[in-house]
Write a structure and sequence with these properties.
Blueprint lengths: L3 H4 L12 H10 L11 E5 L5 H9 L4 E6 L2 H14 L4 E5 L7 H4 L2 E6 L8 H14 E13 L4 H14 L5 H16 L7 H13 L4 H8 L6 E2 L1 H10 L2 E6 L12 H8 L6 H12 L3 E8 L17 E3 L3 E4 L5 E4 L5 E4 L2 H12 L5 E2 H5 L4 H16 L4 E3 L17 H7 L4 E3 L5 E3 L3 H8 L7 H13 L6 E2 L2 E2 L3 H21 L6
Parallel strand pairs: 1-2, 1-4, 2-3, 4-5, 5-6
Antiparallel strand pairs: 5-8, 7-8, 9-13, 9-14, 10-11, 11-12, 15-16, 17-18
Length: about 500
């Protein structure tokens, strides 16, 4: 029988938090020895069109990937992409998660269930955790994302209102319009706003940014269940699984809470890990978790191991800013920052940032630090990782940070650029190419053209009149001006693509 995801296709995408290197890094920091991501077996449940797996399969040809989804149309679409990309190491199968077992599909080093757990019945949730127990290799890692409390209580409030109001409308587009409409109406209903309307207003701000098809499935579906973290851990333990960590650090930023809050949280250091994590969620108002699990028999360090940092690679997209009072602040575009007064750390972070989007080894960043410094350096880098400023890796990124004479983008990115605005970069996230020149440029980056040939083809493309070109929102019509703007912009766009991790050669 066709599923709701056949009727309304979920938007294809990649999920940076499921990227295998992230999962392996979390495991390594807890003392695990997970399978190397460039030679492993991976299973994704509810894979949709498979873009998330395809992006990984292209980068790691020695690993094998299997995606399962109940919806027929997405699987067929993904299979067509795999055929066009000529990928021998990935397979997508139309199958019910309840029919998946070790006897049929074997054992995997990584199992991914993103955007599934909260939207399926209890029997399927139990089976997902049971699969992680049955089908994970001894040092395997399972990734399960789910809506979380307390943050999702507001979403539940809005969802109940929207589903009640939209229940009599049959067409998906009409349901979407009506659901958003009732929420916007109620958020403005009182002449004097109160806590209730403020909550609804925050939900309006969220749902209007949602892609229609994702909003339809995520918020208006029959099932959408949230969990407190301790509830998920309790269920995982029933299946002989244990908590490894979150795919991205979820530490409380000391600059964003009161000293009293930090003091109270520090008093929980002697408590069990589940309790500590749950109270962090209370402080942060967590609404979504990306939890990693492993077999209960796997020994884990009680906390992240700073000494492991020396064995990993580092990357950072921050820009250094020297402070008048001394020291340097490393600021990210998204707002995170790290300040240091320690010259060896400042010098190392500068080297790491200079190599972005490539990753740098500990030794290359710090040279050969004396043993007296090593403990301090690893502790600082671990804190920087936990704050989200520095990223840690188990394997080099397949990316370059300089524009070569014959620049290359991945086959997936070139295919996506030929179809639309969203393309997958080598950081395993989507980049929007809003202008036609950038899209056309990416399709040409197959390594067969030097920069001069690329420029000539783009000039010919612009002169053909197939597309409107603008410069600072001004429509360009004069041929000489079009040529001038393209000659200026092509090197700039290529540099921007390198910075956005779009180039592999």
């Amino acid at each position: 029988m066709p599923s709701a995801y056949d009727e309304v296709l979920y938007p294809p995408g990649v999920h940076i938090h499921t990227q295998l290197d992230r999962l392996a890094t979390v495991g390594r920091l807890r003392g695990m020895q997970p399978a190397p991501v460039d030679n492993c077996r991976v299973l994704e449940l509810g894979c949709g069109v498979g873009t998330n797996l395809i992006a990984m399969a292209i980068n790691w040809p020695e690993s094998s990937f299997l995606g399962l989804d109940l919806a027929c149309k997405p699987i067929q679409s993904g299979q067509a992409d795999i055929k066009e990309l000529e990928l021998p190491n990935i397979e997508l199968i139309e199958a019910d998660v309840l029919d998946a077992n070790k006897k049929r599909f074997g054992v995997f080093d990584y199992v991914i269930a993103h955007g599934l757990y909260s939207w399926v019945p209890q029997s399927v949730r139990d089976h997902v955790l049971g699969m992680c127990r049955e089908m994970l290799s001894p040092n395997g890692i399972g990734y399960v994302s789910y809506n979380a409390y307390p943050g999702n209580h507001l979403r539940d409030l809005a969802r109940g209102i929207m589903r009640f109001h939209a229940r009599h409308f049959q067409e998906p587009a009409e349901k979407i319009q009506q659901a958003r409409g009732i929420l916007q109406f109620l958020a403005r209903a009182r002449s004097e706003p109160n806590a209730y309307t403020a909550a609804l207003k925050s939900e309006v701000d969220r749902v209007v940014k949602y892609a229609d098809t994702a909003f339809y499935h995520d918020d208006l579906s029959d099932i959408n269940r949230s969990f407190y973290f301790y509830e998920f851990v309790r269920d995982a333990e029933r299946h002989d699984l244990r908590f490894v960590g979150e795919s991205s650090p979820n530490e409380v930023d000391p600059d964003k809470v009161t000293p009293e809050t930090l003091q109270r949280l520090s008093e929980l250091e002697s408590a069990d890990e589940t309790t500590r994590e749950q109270y962090k969620d209370f402080v942060l108002g967590c609404g979504f978790r990306r939890t990693l699990v492993c077999h209960k028999e796997v020994p884990l360090a009680p906390n992240r191991l700073a000494e492991v940092v020396k064995e990993l690679l580092l990357s950072c997209d921050a820009s250094p800013v020297d402070e008048p009072a001394g020291g340097t602040v490393f600021r990210q575009r998204k707002g995170g920052e790290l300040a240091s007064m320690h010259p060896p750390i400042i010098a190392a972070l500068r080297r790491i940032c200079d190599e972005w989007p490539c990753a740098t080894s500990f030794d290359a960043a710090f040279g050969a630090p004396g043993m007296s410094d090593c403990g301090l350096l690893t502790e600082v880098l671990l804190k920087a990782y936990e704050s989200g400023v520095v990223q840690l890796h188990t394997i080099p990124r397949i990316v370059v940070n300089r524009v070569s004479q014959r620049p290359i983008a991945s086959t997936l990115a070139r295919l996506q650029a030929s179809r639309g605005e969203l393309v997958t970069c080598q950081l395993h996230k989507l980049i929007r190419l809003a202008d036609p020149l950038s899209k056309r440029l990416v399709t040409l980056l197959d390594g067969t053209r030097d920069q001069g040939a690329i420029l000539e083809e783009l000039l010919e493309f612009a002169r053909s009149g197939q597309v409107e070109l603008r410069d600072n929102e001004r429509l360009l019509t004069d041929p000489a001006e079009i040529d001038s703007v393209i000659r200026r912009r092509v090197p700039e766009v290529l540099q921007a693509l390198a910075r956005e991790a779009m180039l592999i050669g």
